[in-house]
Amino acid sequence: MLEGLLIVLIPMLLGYLIKSKNHTFLTAVNKIVMLLLYAILFVMGISLGQLDDVATKLPIIGLSAFIFSACIIGCNIVGLITFDKLNPAPLKHLGHDIPPRWKLLLDSAKLCSMVLIGFLVGLFSKNSINLPFGASTYVLIALIFFVGIQLRNNGISLREVLFNKRGIYTGMIMTVTSLLGGILAALLLKLPLTQGLAISSGLGWYSLSSVVINNAWGAEFGSIAFFNDLSREIISLFVIPFFMFNYRSTAIGLAGATALDCTLPIIQRSGGMEVVPLAISFGFVTNIAPPILLVFFSSIPL
């Protein structure tokens, strides 16, 4: 477990040490992150396509991902709305100018298409393509390193993180309720609880969860983790503005780890600058927790 934890935490910490104001460099980092993400999803798709009896496993993957997503997000909503009602903090002003959702959905469709392309390549090349051992892990290490650079250069300071108590509490509640949802999904699907806890530990970070789960239990479970976490991003695009005015912690909490990247424009434009410190603090918590939780639960023998 320690080795796996070091593999994901050391690259992030090394990346976090790099601070730059060079716009060209930071733009290049963003592009590299996307390319590495596409590479990871393509490799996972190949692994999925090369599974034995893959046709019979696809419906199981889809149903399992749906049950995990429904249980986890359902538990998130219950826990976060309870927190918002006990500690109300309605917005003074509602944001505006929300970006077109079709553009954001197109980005999610691109991610799914990489898995599909990889799946087709793997399906028709079972005997001709053999991926190097640990290929996805090496790509993941590079990805996490550049994500660390993004975290450092997105204006996130430890002061902002530590002094926004609501953001920290929201992150903790979202994490705990996600794990509870994972336990519920595991019981419904008759899976070991450790698998349910591991799959629910991604908190929306699909590139990390899919690789760690894939390495632990194979492409079938890696795909379940990917679609479970990707569904959070898609759902949050629609529900964040709905909850934002009266339930700001619920709105931001449903974004999970994507609160610092993909869904940040929705958060900022639907809630205004008033909610940005909360989103930053929450996003930092939900980007630090997944590497630790995923490695811990996936290393427990079934």
TrEMBL record:
GO MF, one annotated term: L-lysine efflux transmembrane transporter activity
Record InterPro entries: LysO
UniProt keyword terms in alphabetical order: Membrane, Transmembrane, Transmembrane helix
Pfam families per record: Lys_export
Thylakoid as UniProt keyword: no
Record-annotated membrane-spanning stretches: 28-48, 60-83, 104-125, 131-149, 169-191, 203-227, 234-255, 275-297
Any one annotated GO CC term: plasma membrane
Signal peptide: none
Name this protein carries in UniProt: Uncharacterized membrane protein YbjE (DUF340 family)
Organism (species): Lonepinella koalarum
